Amino acid sequence: SSWKMLIPPRKKTFGVDYQGRMGKFFSIHYSAQEANEMKEAIKNLSELRAQSLHASEATNANCDVSIRYWAQLCLLDKRIDFSQIGLVFTWIDAFKGPTTLSPNQGRMNSTALTLEISSVLFNIGAMLAFQGNTIHSSGGQENLKQASILFKRAAGFFAGVKAYSSRIDGAVSIDLTSDCCSMLENLCLAHAQRCFYEKASNDKMKESLLAKLASAVANLYASVQTALTAGELAKHFKGSSWPGEAAQEVFNFRSIAHVHAANGLEEEAKGMKKGQELGHLYSASSMLEQACKLKLNNTKEKELKAKITSMQALIAKAKKENDTIYHIPEEKSMPDPEAKQVVQSEALPSIQEAVGYDLFSALVPDTVRQAASQYASKRQEFCNQIVQEMNADTETCRHKLSTITPQVDACDLSEPGLPNRLKEKIAAIQSQDGVRGLMQRFQINLDMKEDVQASVKTAQRVIEEEEATDNDMRQKFGVRWTRSLSSSINEPLKKDMREIEKQLKLAADADDIVRGKIDSKRSLLDLLGLNAEQLDGMVAGSGDKAYECMSVQSAVIKTREAVAKLRLIIKEVDSLISQREQIRNSIIYRKEHEDAVKTLSNLILGGKTQTEAMDILLAGFAQLREEFVKNKKIVQELMQKLEKEIEEFLSEQKQDEEMSRRESVLSKISQAIDAYYEITSYVREGTSYYSATQEKVNKLRTRAEDFRVARDIQKEDLLSSITEACAQGTPVASPPAFAPPAAAFAPPAAAFAPPAA
User: Fold this and answer.
1) Which of 421, 472, 516, 686 has the highest local Cβ count within 10 Å?
2) SS3 189
3) For residue 645, which phi and psi values (nearest 5 degrees)?
4) pTM of the entire predicted model
């Protein structure tokens, strides 16, 4: 058919001051460095909008530019709250805009970026539909295939408009309503189904299949026609040719479907269902007559009248054949053929792929800033829980070993004095300057804590002083002090500060625990300051049987074998407990080196919710906890085995006074070593925490100072305006919420008009 299709026009808009408004927003809410980095990105965004809206032709290149602009807006919408920028978007209804009598008709204003996104999607859908219509009118099988694809893509974009516009608060222009978007989606699907049908018809497919395809075209156009004649859309399109033209399409394709159904019966039944054939032909003729009764006086109506003449000839021929050959009772009409819809809307392209180069990739989304703070708190609690559980179980195990190991060492007569196993551990401790070095490291932590607390107080003082100044100025100048309340925009800084103070309180509690352990185990820790000879003398004493038995191998073989067996179990437990240090280090390393902001940003921009994104990151720590759980289970099994075997071993030994003394000394030395390593692990965690926190606090203090500088500049500007207004005797006007629109951006009318019939 040479009929032109119904193609929606593009929406018109006005200029927006991205550079002025966004630049000011970043200078207030972000650091000076971040605001400076965003200047080029904002400039490029402005240029991308201009390219998208000035496109005069519906070409692939222009569609790609608009799709890229849409994708960039979607990513930007996830990063900042546009309602805070004070930028107003103005768009005109695509079907009914301002007139002389109604200058605001169809005009919609909003600070929501979703209006811009919805409108850009609308125009992309219109461009794709226009392309589809152009290619369809060129004819040819390949063109019909390509046109169908374009219409399906257009339908997907109008479905996208519906999804985004539903998020705009308040009333929207009629063209962005759910009913209108659904109507346009179905319109494009009707065009796509039509192209598929026409290609199938050219390919000489079975008549029964063609009937189903044509019937689906009619159904889709019927949904369009129904929407255009109901509710607000009926009012909006009153006086438009669209409802009538949609009805023409419905009747036309109903007629076509009935003709194919009649031909299908002829193919299958060879005339034996001539009565039903005639019923389909009567229905086809009736549809054409109803289409002509619309009296649209267009090219389509002329073609439909010509079709009626042809249809009457077909009916006369079929009727003659039936009267002379088949004599089958005629059906006066037949139900519409079953429909087979083969097209559906294509999903919107992937935002990440469509954007190409993300202009604002360095910008941390608001949602990510919030999520990162929440996640850091959750992560800290999760890690604290794992480490505390690990420390508690390790302390229990070491306590048990500190009782068992000296009993084994006391019965081991193969080594005079301090066993080599303990000598090696003490040598390792003394190589790190022993207890004195441990105390120095703990004191460094306390000094770092004081520095961090001082930095927090500095940042807090900066914020409070700026807010106090703003309140004083507001009280002094009243309504003339027109800038935003400090308390309304410094909340993110205060929230981060509260979170840091909360974590510092937990750290201070941990420091008190360490100090308590040091005080309670001071006498034990002092043993580690003795040299090897002094410790040997303490263990051996004057009657150490180890000296007497060194040369009497046969007398101690049985004891040695039992001790060796017990030592193997102790060694295995020691090894497993040492592995916990690796797990602890992995947790600390992951926590300190995890770029939570970047990872959360990728996950959230990729479509994950804050909760989903945080759960994904915490899952990595959960795996480390599972490693500890497995380790704990094996250690428990070995400890149970060790306790059982040491009980059996000791029941066979004769314990005299000297053996008990030896066991007591070895027990104290073992406890001293365990206490040193336990406290060392706490101090190491503290060092790691305070180092990481110092960096966070420094960034917070920088943000607070940058915020005060930006607000001071704004304050001086406003003071100058007030002073100038007072000198002139005129009231001070509030700064405009947005730059007044310059000129409407709209494609040339001729460039987008559908081809003449």
Assistant:
1) 686
2) helix
3) -75, -35
4) 0.60
